[in-house]
Amino acid sequence: MERLPDLADLTHAEKDALIHLLWDWVTALRQEVVRLTAEVTRLQGEVAHLRGQMAKNSRNSSIPSSAEGLKKTKSMRKQGSRPPGGQPGHSGSTLKQVAQPDHVVDHPLPEVCDVCGESLTGQATTEIRQVFDLPPVTMEVTEHRIHALRCTCGKLHRSEFPPEVTAPVQYGPGVKAQAVYLTQHHMLPVARTANVLADLYGVPISTGTVQAMIGEASERLAPTVARIADAVAQADVAGADESGFRVAGKLNWLHTAVTDTLTWLGLHAKRGKAAFEDFGLLYRLKGTLVHDGWASYRELTCTHALCNAHHLRELTFVHEECGQAWAKRMIDLLVSAHHETVAAHGQPLTAQRIQAIRTHYEAILAEAAAANPEKPASGRRGRTAQSVPFNLYRRLRDHADDVLRFTTDPRVPFSNNLAEQAIRMPKVKHKIAGCFRTTEGALAFCTIRSYLATLQKQHFDLFQSLIQVFRGNTPQPNFSG
């Protein structure tokens, strides 16, 4: 092996060249270390992000439970908070015997004893059992006849058909109401509804006829639904939400605005400001709007309240997946404050309790700030990406008044569940049907569903109400709610 030259044998020029060569190597190695360190940091962040995404479920994020497949889900409700079965005060629906049955069938005793052959005499005891069943249902056809007669003076007298009888052959209000009831409230597809009517009642109905019935109901109900929108806009407290909705193969957005007694649904190609402007409803709202904190809602001039169900799920993620203890303390505070407001039965909390909750809230935020320092600006265009815990902490800090609105105003709910529930059943319809084939069909669904959901909140008989709609006497809900 050839021996390396001794440094003492090198000339000054050779030593300088060797030093420069070594310096270049060290510089290159340093640059490579910096590059690799940055790459490792980036990859670690990407891995943490992907692990976080994989760890998200319906319990710690806004992912719906239906998207979790067959995995077992875990509720956020504490065990024992509401035991299985009927709750106290629930009236129940157990089948009970009636005093006046429609039919009575006697099953007589034999005339003689089958053991000794003696005649059976004396007063027998009676045991009653009742069977509740449906009578045979067949199509009932009513024929309307008008008459004409010319007077001796020459005038022709002619009677008139009722206003609702407009064709030589047509379906009546009962059939129309059932078709609309099944498709718009129970979410059956149109073709399946036609099959149900044919199988149960012998109604030979086509899918086109069912669609026409839906369109007629929507047209009749449009003025009432417009009044529902006006009433929601005038409410002291309302909730709003939106969700993606495919119509004619394209992504649209289903919007909702609700109160305790009113539900309004609307369809729009846009999710945010453009939809709000076209609908006009939320821009007219002067009370408090409960929502999930999406940026477009922030542009509205009303008072805001944030949905704490969303916060509880996000805090669960930060506690369980990021290991940050402050998130668990915030969960406990929000849940405890909620229970306190429920126990107050609509009465406001005292100023001392409100201040105590706020003080505790801000102390937890201070812990969150210490655990999640803000990343400095990277020098690139746009806002520097922050961690999930920091983003949640910043929202809870910047909008603390809106988060705790339910403690200062007893009319404001803890969460936006009312609006989310209004979206849920239309999403079921969407999932069953795949998508609405036409915009007209989707708009008709929004109109009819707004009416039925409102009547359901106000305990109307939905089917009988639809019959009245087709008779031209639309039942009106209470618009003052």
Please characterize this protein's 3D structure.
The chain is an alpha/beta fold. Among the domains are: 173-232 and 431-471; 308-372 and 387-414, no CATH class. 48% of the residues lie in helices and 8% in strands. It has helices at 12-55, 173-185, 190-201, 207-233, 273-279, 281-284, 295-298, 308-322, 325-343, 351-371, 388-398, 400-403, 405-408, 417-433, 439-457, 462-470, and strands spanning 148-150, 156-158, 237-247, 250-258, 263-268, 288-291, 303-306. The strands form 2 sheets. A 5-stranded mixed β-sheet has the order 5-4-3-6-7. The longest helix has 44 residues, at 12-55. It is elongated and about 140 Å long. This is IS66 family transposase. Residues 110-153 form the Transposase IS66 zinc-finger binding domain. It comes from Thermochromatium tepidum ATCC 43061.
Comma- or semicolon-separated keywords:
single chain; 481 residues; alpha/beta; 5-stranded mixed beta sheet; two-stranded antiparallel sheet; 16 helices; 48% helix; IS66 family transposase
Topology of helices and strands:
Elements: H1 12-55, E1 148-150, E2 156-158, H2 173-185, H3 190-201, H4 207-233, E3 237-247, E4 250-258, E5 263-268, H5 273-279, H6 281-284, E6 288-291, H7 295-298, E7 303-306, H8 308-322, H9 325-343, H10 351-371, H11 388-398, H12 400-403, H13 405-408, H14 417-433, H15 439-457, H16 462-470
Helix pairs in contact: 2-3, 2-4, 2-16, 4-15, 8-9, 9-10, 10-11
Region (Disordered): 51-97
Domain Transposase IS66 zinc-finger binding: 110-153
Biased composition (Polar residues): 55-65
